Batch of 3 targets.
Target 1
Amino acid sequence: DAKTTQPPSMDCAEGRAANLPCNHSTISGNEYVYWYRQIHSQGPQYIIHGLKNNETNEMASLIITEDRKSSTLILPHATLRDTAVYYCIVKANSGYALNFGKGTSLLVTP
Amino acid sequence: GAGVSQTPSNKVTEKGKYVELRCDPISGHTALYWYRQSLGQGPEFLIYFQGTGAADDSGLPNDRFFAVRPEGSVSTLKIQRTERGDSAVYLCASSLRAGNTEAFFGQGTRLTVV
């Protein structure tokens, strides 16, 4: 699976949009981009995934560049409960193991 | 229950002892995974079950670690002759099937070897 690069930490004011970037320049054509988050002392939680089209669900939006070498997870109105470590993971459709890396620690401040 | 359940939530054991960690996946989920998370790190893959069989155990660190899933639902991770370096949070996850589906994680078992 392709490797991803994320900033180690980010801050965001409550109520503002949180934009979390991820680079995956070696992504292959059959690999999806997944996002999970992990709130302190809890197990990881699935957020969203996509192949090449932008995706949106009740939690977030995923914007993937046309060349698929990078993506951005958008939390449109961040709340204090969104403070967590966010992991960007690239995985083939036929794969099963998630390679978490170190993720981005997002701190949402009042 | 509705989610993945792991027991115990915390386990303290002495170096050299044997421990078992249990995972109850979501009913109907055929795929089950074990991960290990050390402090400040992301979870690391240990083993993947499809049904009753271990389809990939390449992440198990050594032969002191073993996992079973005899009836295709509950899984047990077994660690023999525990070492202080085994101290970590052990996470279990399940998914409807392997591949392009989301994995649901339990809260983990925090293992401390003293």
Note: The interface with chain B takes residues 32, 41-46, 49, 85, 87, 93-103 of chain A (CB under 8 Å).
Target 2
Amino acid sequence: EPEVTQTPSHQVTQMGQEVILRCVPISNHLYFYWYRQILGQKVEFLVSFYNNEISEKSEIFDDQFSVERPDGSNFTLKIRSTKLEDSAMYFCASSEIPAGMNTEAFFGQGTRLTVV
Amino acid sequence: AQKITQTQPGMFVQEKEAVTLDCTYDTSDPSYGLFWYKQPSSGEMIFLIYQGSYDQQNATEGRYSLNFQKARKSANLVISASQLGDSAMYFCAMRTEGFQKLVFGTGTRLLVSP
């Protein structure tokens, strides 16, 4: 069964450093998303991406964050100058068609980011 | 604004019994979809079931069913014949028309005991 793959599964970084979280969406999917989940809290939407453009973003997704599809298979989230409060589980998701009412978004297993 | 409320931080159920996980939502948009996801201890998010705001019948997927009461703005998940493997965190989420994002509730941790 096709799945969304995220690497690494766990990353530890020092405050102020830049990190890149990687995702390989399902191959025929065209719409990509990042969500984050701070430990013990709810899952929060960050950004959606289609056709090499951000199609929707939340207030959390400020200038510290950027997304990119550097090639035909990868989708990345870059966090510049990490802060302690960026520590969270980051989920990548993808869907075949636009996220409409009944479109299931397939989630990856997540990358746990720890900023120390 | 869209909001999902899950008031049960934790629920306990014995194996083979049914359990209901509560979810209420708030939106002024007439067109929306409601989703339930399961998050086991391994961390991944697993899609369980979907209910559209215009669907006439309650959604069912195997042992999962959604008790959708539109007037009360509730979309409770019912798990029948609980299994030990059902122990996990369960999230209710909503998407409204015109938006890409899913809005999640705070989740309910379900523990199934033998």
Note: The radius of gyration of chain B is 14 Å.
Target 3
Amino acid sequence: KAGVTQTPRYLIKTRGQQVTLSCSPISGHRSVSWYQQTPGQGLQFLFEYFSETQRNKGNFPGRFSGRQFSNSRSEMNVSTLELGDSALYLCASSLGTGAYNEQFFGPGTRLTVL
Amino acid sequence: AQTVTQSQPEMSVQEAETVTLSCTYDTSESDYYLFWYKQPPSRQMILVIRQEAYKQQNATENRFSVNFQKAAKSFSLKISDSQLGDAAMYFCAYRNSNSGYALNFGKGTSLLVTP
């Protein structure tokens, strides 16, 4: 069974631009979560989607948004990029939303904002 | 909000030896899950082991085991017979319904394995 895939793997943008990251979950998984990883703040939860609905959102500004499609694939969008948005963005999928559901992580997208 | 603390930024262990990574957490909940994740240089997060708070028995997965002390809010990871492939960042994480089931991670411990 294929794992979680994220595209692109690397991205370079300039301040003020916007970016869209994509995540394809493991087949059959309906929940997708996004995390931001930076050296300073560590791993922080962005949001979770289940069956095309946002179920949970972390403490990030409205510039960060996401969505989930009917095939469970998810995208996250960051508008008006800032230097501090440079990070590794990790996507994780699971069968459901309960705490007992193991989250399987993708390889991440490395975003660099210049 | 729940907090997860890993007090050891770096640890070192010799091959074949045993090492213990520490993790403490703060919560007022009684029902939750705790996890240890491994992140090698490839950056792929891999679940190492998990513990349900309602289970008194410590979880074990091959060479990996935990010491779960619920009253002390402590959740340490023991790696036995360390191998070079164990070198990675290790993150302790907490999850429960009040956090919307989002994983709440500690800052991580970098484990170096020396031959």
Note: The radius of gyration of chain A is 13 Å.
